[in-house]
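Re: How this chain folds, sequence and tokenised backbone to follow
Notation: Tokens come from a learned vocabulary of local backbone shapes, not from coordinates.
Start of record: The labelled sequence and token lines come straight after this line.
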Amino acid sequence: MKFSILTLFPEIIESYTQASIVGRGVTSGVISVETVNPRDFTTDPHRKVDDAPYGGGSGMVMTCQPIEDAFKSLLPLSKPNRVLVMTPQGKVFDHGMAKELSECEQIVMLCGHYEGFDERIFDLLPNPERVSVGDFVLTGGELPALCIVDAVARQVPGVVQKFSSVEQDSFYNGLLDTPHYTRPAEYKGLNVPEVLLSGDHAAIDAWRQEQALACTAEYRPDLLAAWQERQQQQKT
């Protein structure tokens, strides 16, 4: 799988994707991450990629020409592919979308800055999708793009050494993850639940399911309601 990221700050992307699990996925060749800087494609003699908005107002807007030409440098795209534009106006990214995207051969992501993109970009690109990572505004699209890279990469077999650990993640089966404990068994009077020390794997699995349900009920009752509805549908 290839991630192609259009960004004015490639160093932000590269520093993250060279480290940890994502970095190991890149090193092993399971995934690849490339950055394209629209500033390298601008025809402006001062290498400008933004201009003042028509109609007045504060801030600057990223212009069409460098974005379009930077995108064209990636063609032809591998199939299947998705083109994502990082914007607070977009659909909120979630685990379901991460699983969908993990089936692509190439994902192109555009990172905005300033007041965002000239709206005509959405007419110039093939099937662009507006994507957000939450109801808040960041300085640029690099952090949202990295969130997507990380979440999607985890779903690609071979990136995480034991895919079973991915299957136990929060949201994978619709519930939050269970609490986890490690050595020592007792720390400052706080003890690991006895069932986890029992060696009874059936009892441990049952405890973990109970804890996942309890955690989801406490912290994300909306997820629990959706999970219960799916369980009921499967029975009918």
Remarks:
- Residues 2-154 form a domain with the Alpha/beta knot fold (CATH 3.40.1280.10).
- The mean pLDDT is 96.
- The longest strand covers residues 81-92.
- The longest helix spans residues 201-219.
